[in-house]
Amino acid sequence: MPKFQEYQAFISIYETRSITKAGRQLNLSASSISKKLSKLEDELSVQLVDRSTHNLSITPLGERFYLRCKSILDAVTENEILIREENQITAGRIRIALPEMLVTPLLLNAIKSFGNLYPDVRFELNVSNELQDLIASDIDFCFRSGVLEDSQLIRVPLFATQHIFCATPDYLDQHPLTDSYESLFENRQLIVPTFVNLSMIAKKFFPDANIRVQQVVSSHSTNHLSAIVSMTLAGLGASILPRIYIQPLLDQGKLLQIYPHYASPAMDISLIYHKKLAMTRLMSLFKSFIREWAEHQPRVL
């Protein structure tokens, strides 16, 4: 703000009654201070300082202008102090967007651990499978999988997850499986999502298999990830799900992994924020905490 600097120069001249001393106070040369004063006077079309005598003096207009100018700069300084103090506060709300597949005990426990360190923080979770405009939606951070196409977004890699075939023990007792996972498609045993492009998923997850989409769409289906889990637990079929999402059910024995030799492409999970985000100390602490927490997790979950 050039005009702001001109105001500072004039106030310094007024208070020191010297262009040279004002320059020392502001770490500027005397000629630079003199130029700023002349520019300010030209812009205002008034004479603020009388330099016609050996001793510098302030004109009556300069006296009045100083009082107004000083109050403005004092208010700016006070606001700068306040905003710096606010930036050091470890309290407030952090808004996080994440897809359904990451609403898991693993990630929620990490968020809880940060909350334990800073009890005055409040989290607002926005669950959506769509990548939102972080600025327009007033989102601080989001957890996402896959590749970013927006150059305005900054990605902090955390870990990766894989999809696995699974079913309940009862279902497997009643529906013996063949040696090939392709039989799940052929026998319409796989519960499939309707919220993704099935052709693309088939090519991505099964590049070497001869799986026709017509076989897939004739299976049971649903438009929610949680519903796929519920349908699988109810014994309506087998499913292919992200391990990170169903790990507690695997640990409890409610779901069993089938075709363990199958390894799906790993999906990278990242913490994402917008490069234009005005990051407070609280946000910086959260970003650092999540990055450090992820370093202690397995590379693939």
Description:
The protein has 301 residues and is an alpha/beta fold. The chain folds into 3 domains: 2-87, Winged helix-like DNA-binding domain superfamily/Winged helix DNA-binding domain (Arc Repressor Mutant, subunit A); 92-158 and 267-295, D-Maltodextrin-Binding Protein, domain 2, CATH 3.40.190; 163-258, D-Maltodextrin-Binding Protein, domain 2, CATH 3.40.190.290. The chain contains 12 helices and 12 strands. The protein has helices at residues 2-16, 19-25, 30-44, 60-87, 105-117, 169-174, 182-186, 198-205, 213-217, 225-233, 243-251, 281-295; strands at 49-50, 57-58, 92-98, 121-127, 141-145, 153-161, 163-167, 190-193, 221-222, 238-242, 256-258, 267-274. The strands form 3 sheets. A 5-stranded mixed beta sheet has the order 4-3-5-12-6, covered by helices on one side. Helix 1 (2-16) packs across helix 3 (30-44), helix 1 packs across helix 4 and helix 2 (19-25) packs across helix 3 (30-44).
